[in-house]
Design a protein that fits this description.
Length: 465
């Protein structure tokens, strides 16, 4: 006779023991296999007694749902998400562009800590959730945490809203009525002088217009120190009818301010004021294929600049110096509207501020093997890609569409025209990436009662230096 030999019970127990279990449980198996001698009283000498295994399992608790919170957003867009301690060994933090976590999903942290430093790559509203896990279970996701990550400051525009872009052009780009310069200096006496506060404000307004359209912080201010150096540099350019970043005492009106200003500025001869800002973004001239002036103006980190302007007088040409180097150039990169900085920018762009040279900038990117595809209405648009030159602000790829001259202004458009841009094989952090966006060039005056084309283009002069 055999004891505990019920086949169905044994089969059921074996099935239970073989069922999948979490790998990191505390398992204590006590297996006693006893082969007892036949009972003296048993009539069956083959009688055995088996002791089946006794299994003790200590399951971990299911982690509770985290309660999460976020710190204030820093200037560089970073912030910290934290949560209370749970019965968990690790925590996962996810980010999404919508509250259902169905788009733009990425894992931003996998940590055993109770906090996660988040560095978003673009501005906008983001949603975050956290859950704990241990060796046995995943816990429930936290309720979504909404974080609005703003651009650092300054004026803003939604470039995907046609009317907003048209209104922004007339309110921020067009300078009307034009304030008087009221310059107090003199080329003949080498007096740098000063320009009127209203004139400088108009120059700054034009500068921040371009930064806002490009999606970088449009909060530049002019400082008195930078203005003084830029004014001295512009005077030297006008007085000597030259452009040079290396001002020496061999030049008339030399000063240390002029030397310091010229070495840190975009320079223009024959154009001044807000038209010079337009000209720097235009960046025409055979030697300006790297669009260095544009790149310095659109550098996201910059906070302070200075403007020097000299009006034409007698045989002296007008001049501008825009001091673009400040102490913030090496700061952590602030968030921008897009990962990249492009001109013309993604979205709607008035034709008056579209130039022959298009550009795409990304910090520390390797564009040596990159390529450009430009299409419009389903047709390929030929492009001429310029040699890649690093060292001016962020690394940048430049191209000219349709065989245009680099001196050419974009032709006036009647109907909106959309161009699809694809930049392929950009090496970032050792990985190849592709970027796609669209630009719709339009006439902001079309259908606008009383619209003016004032300020549509800066007069051509010597290329900026």
């Amino acid at each position: 006779m055999k004891h505990h030999d019920d086949e169905e019970k044994i089969a059921a127990l074996r099935s239970h023991l073989r069922a999948p279990r979490p790998l990191h449980l505390l398992l204590v198996y006590i297996l006693v296999f006893c082969l007892l001698p036949p009972s003296a009283a048993s009539a069956d000498p083959a009688t055995y007694v088996f002791a089946l295994p006794a299994v003790y399992k200590n399951y971990a608790e299911v982690p509770a749902q985290p309660q999460v919170q976020a710190s204030a957003v820093a200037d560089d867009g970073s912030f910290t998400i934290s949560w209370s301690a749970l019965t968990a060994e690790a925590y996962t933090v996810q980010e999404s562009t919508n509250i259902t976590f169905s788009s733009g999903l990425r894992e931003v942290c996998l940590t055993s800590e109770l906090a996660c430093l988040v560095r978003p790559v673009t501005v906008g509203v983001r949603y975050y959730r956290v859950r704990g896990r241990n060796s046995s279970y995943y816990g429930e996701w936290s309720a979504p945490l909404t974080v609005s990550v703003p651009i650092r400051g300054g004026i803003l525009v939604d470039t995907h809203n046609r009317q907003a872009v048209a209104d922004f052009y007339y309110s921020q780009y067009v300078i009307s009525p034009a304030p008087a310069i009221n310059w107090t200096g003199s080329q003949d006496t080498c007096a740098p002088g000063v320009t009127s506060q209203a004139f400088r404000a108009a120059v700054l307004k034009r500068l921040n217009y371009f930064r806002a359209m490009a999606g970088v912080p449009a909060d530049i201010i002019f400082t008195s120190d930078a203005n003084r150096k830029a004014q001295a540099a512009a005077l030297v350019m006008s007085r000597n009818n030259t452009l040079t970043h290396d001002v020496t005492d061999a030049l008339a009106c030399y000063s240390q301010d002029a030397r310091d200003g010229a070495g840190a500025s975009n320079l223009f001869l024959g154009v001044y004021g807000w038209d010079a800002i337009h000209g720097y973004l235009f960046d025409y001239g055979d030697g300006n294929y790297a669009v260095g002036h544009r790149r310095w103006i659109l550098l996201p980190q910059t906070r302070e600049m200075g403007a020097g302007d000299i009006p034409p007088s007698g045989n002296y040409q007008s001049a501008n110096a825009l001091l673009v180097f400040d102490a913030h150039m090496v700061d952590p990169r602030p968030l921008t509207r897009d990962e990249f900085v492009a001109w013309p920018a993604p979205g709607y762009v008035p034709y008056q501020v579209v130039f022959a040279r298009w550009s795409f900038s990304y910090p520390n990117a390797d564009f040596s093997q990159a390529s450009i595809t430009l299409t419009s209405a389903g047709h390929n648009v030929p492009v001429a890609v310029a040699p890649v030159i690093n060292g001016y602000g962020e690394n940048t790829l430049v191209w000219i569409p349709n065989g245009m001259s680099n001196y050419a202004a974009w032709p006036q458009v009647i109907a909106d025209t959309t161009y699809s841009v694809t930049v392929r094989n950009v090496i970032i952090g050792g990985q190849s990436r592709d970027f796609s966006y669209s630009v719709t060039i339009f006439n902001p005056g079309a259908g606008v009662q009383g619209a003016s084309e004032a300020g549509a283009a800066a007069p051509l002069a010597l290329p900026p230096e």
